[in-house]
């Protein structure tokens, strides 16, 4: 329940601190006194969007704070789900800064508006006149039936299964889309893969092939120059090695004369050994250089294949071609693997759909049991509200697809008078009838729901006399189960409250301010008397007001 409300710098309110009680509370005041401001402040605590124009003084921040006593309402799991610290007295605060920025806090922890909206749905229901249009909303009609049918636990399990079912359907759709794309490219990918596999590029060194090709392609040229080089080194007449030997023999004769001469001899000896080794190596290489046209052609073809593949795939190395080959292999495998994935997911979805249908049947059975209760209770309450001949027919039909509430579509048919045929509620009920039907529904829901607080904003518009008196009785009876506020202009309803608050405006030369006070018995008599007779309160109005209170 709403235990306390604090408002600072909001609309016409400078500062307001008010405590509230259990039971049935009345709020009255002249039109424009500020009742809508109170509702606007509470709306901010429900997570509605803030408006910078709501600041009374636009140089200071606006702060609205509500204290909600919730220890009897088993909301721990909701707080855990929303990742908020639970407190038996939970404090919700909204701040609007002069910059226009808005902040929200629950038990001093910052929260976003969607979290605040979800939390407030379990704390307070503000029912204004335009909300009667909700009765035309099929999801709201289903929610009413489910509240009476106690379907909440079944719906939680069902919705979790539906969430998984939709997720898997989405996965299946992505598999199929991916498969379609892969199939479009599969033939081409297969061709590219086969082309790369046939090239047998594993363990192939492009550098070695190119080197070998150069050797085979230049056999005659190499043989000619190797032969010439060998002849220069080993020629019978004046070869380099022969000349070197003669020089070595000459230097050997001078070795004993000086150490320096001995060094020259050693160096020329080393040179002779090196040149002889080079000449032998040239001779060996010359023997190996053999013309092999077939091998040359094979290497040429292999290199040409590599060059063509590199050009096609726009790469420069065999290693890059191997990476492309691996990628193509995976794509081809994926196309085949997707068939298995799609088949498995389709089978899984069939099982999940069967489970959902079983759950929907269980939900529907409880709804079918609840519908007669709802119809009878509506008829009973509406009879008290001046609609003795009102009747309802609520029908469930199969929906074409699974929804968050199951696989049912609902038709809420209504007839206000005897002899009138049934029609869709939203088409045949007048505004006044919709208001009374909504009050009846709220009264019924109070018996089944666990909502701490409800506020009725002028739900009595367009009614008077005995109907208004019965409306007051219904709201008072609701207050046995929850905290009820009624903003009203009717003395019959105002007299039913356990406590009575008045909204009024005060003005000075500079500003106008809205205030809210709790009336004592004498003030309450005067307020109800004024509601009866206007500003000029008569003695008979005072007596009538006191009689109403008694």
Describe this structure in words.
With 550 residues, the protein is of the alpha/beta class. Among the domains are: 1-123 and 451-519, Rossmann fold (3-Layer(aba) Sandwich), CATH 3.40.50.300; 182-335, no CATH class. It contains 17 helices and 15 strands. The protein has helices at 35-45, 76-81, 113-120, 138-149, 152-198, 206-217, 219-234, 240-252, 259-288, 293-313, 318-384, 425-428, 431-448, 465-478, 491-494, 521-533, 539-549; strands at residues 2-10, 13-19, 24-28, 62-69, 89-96, 102-106, 109-111, 124-127, 391-403, 406-415, 423-424, 453-457, 483-487, 499-507, 512-518. The strands form three sheets. It has a six-stranded antiparallel beta sheet. Strands 8-12-13-3-14-15 form a six-stranded mixed beta sheet. A hairpin with a 2-residue loop joins strand 6 and strand 7 (109-111). Helix 5 packs antiparallel against helix 11 (318-384). The mean pLDDT is 87.
Rg value: 48 Å
- State the end-to-end distance: 27 Å
How much helicity do the residues have? 55-70%
- For the record, the CATH architecture of one domain stands as 3-Layer(aba) Sandwich
GO molecular function: ATP binding
Keywords: ATP-binding, DNA damage, DNA repair, Nucleotide-binding
Family: Belongs to the RecN family.
Function: May be involved in recombinational repair of damaged DNA.
